[in-house]
Write a structure and sequence with these properties.
The chain is mostly helical.
Length: 410
C-alpha cells in the first residue's frame, strides 16, 4: 500500500491536481453548479405531480399540465443557462468583461440552435441535449474574445464614454467573427454542430450508465480522495454534464409516463454511494463514537453531526483517512460495494431510478427517499447501505485501535 501511495503521489496526483485546478475545468464546474437550482425547483413540481400517495394520481390529474409547466421551463433551458454561466465565469477568470462574455456566448449558442428549415429554435438543444455544445461554445467564445482583446483587434472608444458602451463596442469585432464563423459552419457548410458534439461524447455518455463504467468512476473518485485530492471536483467538470443529461432524460420519461432510462442519473452517486460523505464515512463515525481510544472517540463525536449532512472532511483529515493505508482500503471498498449494489437493484427494478435532484447535503435515507420520488424501498436500501459500510469499516477500525494501543505500550 505504501508503494502504491508513493506511485500515485509521483505520477498520478500531479496530473490530476493540474486537471482539477485548470481554468477551463473550473469554469465548467461553476457553470454546472449554476444550473442546480433549476433542477431542484423543477424537481419540486415533479414530486408534487407524482406523490406516492394512494389516490393522488386521480386527484392531481386535472392540474397535471399546469404542474408540468415549471418542469419544462427549468429543465428546458439547462444548456442555455450553463452556456451563460460558464462564459461568465471564464470571462472573469480571463479578466474580460464577464457580462459581455456571457452575452456573446449566448448569441452564438442560440445561432446554432436555429433550425434551417423553418428558422425556429430547436428547443431540445436549449435543454440537456445541448449541454456539451453549450460548454464548447462558452469556452471557444471567451478564448476568442481574449485573443482579439490581447491582440488589439477591437474597436476602442474614448475613456470618457460610459463603461457599458465602451465594453459593447469592444466586443463588436470578436462577436462578428464568431457569428460569421459559426454561421458558415452550421448553415453554409451544413454541419449539425449539436449532432457532431453529441456523437463525440456518446462513448463516454454510454459508459457512465453501465456498471463497469460507473465502477471505474467510483474507484477513481474514492482513490483520489484517499491521496488528498478532492475526487469529486477533479472529475466533476467531465461527468456533471452527463449525469445532468441523464437526470433530464429521466424527468422527461417520468412526465411522459415512460420507464426511466438511466440508472446513474444525477443523485445516484451523491446519494446512494456517498452515504454520509464519499466512502460512506458516516458508518466509520458511528463506530468510532464508542471507540476505547480517546482520540478516535473524539474524532467520531466531532465529525458525526457534519456527516449527517454528507460533509466528511472532519473525519477524513482528522483521523486521518487520507494517505492512511489502514483506512484507504475500506474507504475505496465501500464505494465499490455500494455502487454495485445500488446499480443492480435499480437495474432489476427493485428500486426506482433517480429523477429528482436534491441538495447533496440532504441526510442519507431521507435523500434516498426523495431522489427516487418517494420510493420507500430506496430508503430501506439506505439503511442497509449504512449497515454494510459499518461491517466493512469495523475490522479496520478495530485494527487501527489495536495498533495505537500497542504503540502506546512500547
Amino acid at each position: 500500500m505504501t508503494r502504491l501511495t508513493a506511485l500515485l503521489n509521483r505520477h498520478v496526483v500531479p496530473a490530476l491536481t493540474a486537471l482539477s485546478e485548470n481554468t477551463y475545468m473550473s469554469a465548467i464546474r461553476a457553470g454546472m453548479v449554476s444550473v442546480v437550482p433549476l433542477t431542484i425547483i423543477g424537481g419540486l413540481f415533479l414530486v408534487i405531480s407524482y406523490l406516492p400517495v394512494p389516490g393522488w394520481t386521480t386527484l392531481v390529474a386535472p392540474w397535471l399540465p399546469l404542474l408540468q409547466i415549471p418542469v419544462t421551463a427549468t429543465f428546458g433551458i439547462l444548456g442555455l443557462v450553463a452556456c451563460l454561466a460558464i462564459a461568465y465565469d471564464l470571462g472573469a477568470r480571463f479578466r474580460q468583461e464577464a457580462l459581455v462574455s456571457a452575452t456573446m456566448a449566448l448569441a452564438v449558442f442560440l445561432l446554432i440552435q436555429v433550425e434551417p428549415a423553418d428558422l425556429t429554435f430547436r428547443t431540445p438543444g436549449l435543454g440537456s441535449q445541448g449541454l456539451f455544445t453549450a460548454i464548447i461554445v462558452a469556452l471557444v467564445v471567451v478564448r476568442v474574445q481574449k485573443l482579439f482583446t490581447d491582440r488589439g483587434i477591437v474597436i476602442t472608444m474614448p475613456e470618457t464614454v460610459p463603461s457599458v458602451v465602451y465594453q459593447s463596442f469592444l466586443s463588436l469585432v470578436p462577436l462578428l467573427f464568431l457569428v460569421v464563423t459559426f454561421w458558415l459552419i452550421r448553415f453554409v457548410a451544413g454541419v449539425d454542430i449539436n449532432h457532431v458534439v453529441q456523437a463525440a461524447f456518446r462513448p463516454l455518455v454510454f459508459a457512465l450508465n453501465t456498471l463497469p463504467g460507473i465502477l471505474v468512476y467510483a474507484f477513481l473518485v474514492s482513490l483520489l480522495w484517499s491521496v488528498g485530492i478532492h475526487g469529486d471536483n477533479a472529475l466533476d467538470a467531465i461527468v456533471a454534464p452527463i449525469f445532468l443529461q441523464y437526470l433530464a432524460e429521466n424527468v422527461a420519461a417520468m412526465t411522459g409516463g415512460q420507464p426511466l432510462p438511466y440508472v446513474t442519473a444525477n443523485g445516484f452517486f451523491t446519494t446512494f454511494v456517498n452515504v454520509g460523505g464519499t466512502g460512506a464515512t458516516l458508518a466509520l463515525a458511528l463506530i468510532l463514537v464508542r471507540s476505547p481510544d480517546a482520540a478516535f472517540r473524539q474524532v467520531g463525536r466531532v465529525s458525526l453531526p457534519t456527516q449527517v449532512f454528507q460533509i466528511n472532511e472532519p473525519i477524513f483529515f482528522g483521523l486521518p483517512i487520507v494517505l492512511n493505508p489502514v483506512f484507504m482500503v475500506p474507504y475505496v471498498l465501500n464505494a465499490m460495494i455500494l455502487t454495485t449494489g445500488s446499480y443492480l437493484l435499480m437495474s432489476w427494478g427493485l428500486i426506482q431510478r433517480p429523477f429528482i435532484n436534491v441538495p447533496w447535503t440532504t441526510p442519507p435515507i431521507i435523500g434516498h427517499y426523495l431522489v427516487t420520488g418517494g420510493d420507500w424501498r430506496a430508503a430501506a436500501w439506505g439503511v442497509v447501505s449504512l449497515a454494510i459500510a459499518v461491517v466493512v469499516y469495523y475490522p479496520f477500525a478495530r485494527a487501527a485501535e489495536r495498533a495505537r494501543a500497542q504503540h502506546r505500550a512500547v
